[in-house]
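User: Before I run my own analysis I want an independent prediction to cross-check against. Here's the chain; please return only the C-alpha cells and, at the end, one sentence I can use as a sanity check.
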Amino acid sequence: MRKIYDISQTIRPDIPVWPGDTPFSLKPTWTIGGDSPVNVSEMTLSTHTGSHADSRLHFDTKGVDCASTALDPYIGEALVVDLSAKVGRAVLAEDLSSLPARVERVLLKLFPKFPHDGWDPEFPGISVEAIELLQSKGCVLIGTDVPSLDHQNSKELDAHFAVDAAEMAILEGLVLDDIPEGSYELIALPLKIEGADGSPVRAILRDLS
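Assistant: C-alpha cells:
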C-alpha cells in the first residue's frame, strides 16, 4: 500500500485564522443519552479555515463558487518544492528556475516550520512573474503552506488574479513540514458548497509507487 501523508491542519477551537475572520467552534446539539441515540454537533467556521481551496468567487464577484469549481486540478501528480530557506518577501520566478519543463501541480513550502499555535503576518507572497512561469510549464494548481498567495495587507490581490488568468487552482494553508521534496499524488477536494468562496479540504499526498 502506498504511504499517505496528511498535509492538512487540524481544525480545532484555537486554530489561528486570518485576523478578523470567524474563529472555529464546535458544540453539541444532540448527545447520546435519554431520547438521543447519537451525537450531533454544530460547527461554526470560515470558508478559509485551515487548509483550504479558494474558489474564484473569493476574489471576483463574477467568479464561480465551490459547487461549480472543476475538480481535476485537485487530484493528480504534484511536485513539493522547499523554498523556506531561500525566499524573502515573495517567491520570484528565479526561485523556480530548477523546476522541470512541465509540471502540473506545485506545492511550495515557505515556512521553515508551520506556525500551528500563532499567526505570522509576515508570510511570503507569490509574485506574478512566478505564477506566469508556472503557467508556461503547464501548471494547473499552486499550493502553499502560507495562508494566502498575496501578502496579508494586499488590496490588489495580484497573485490571485494572475492565477485566475492562468486558469490555475489554489490551495493555501497546507502543512508541509515533514514532506521531502519530490513528486507525489495529491488529493485535496473542496466541499461542494453552493455560493461558497472557499472550502476547507482534507489534503493528502501519496507516494507514486
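Sanity check: The radius of gyration is 18 Å.
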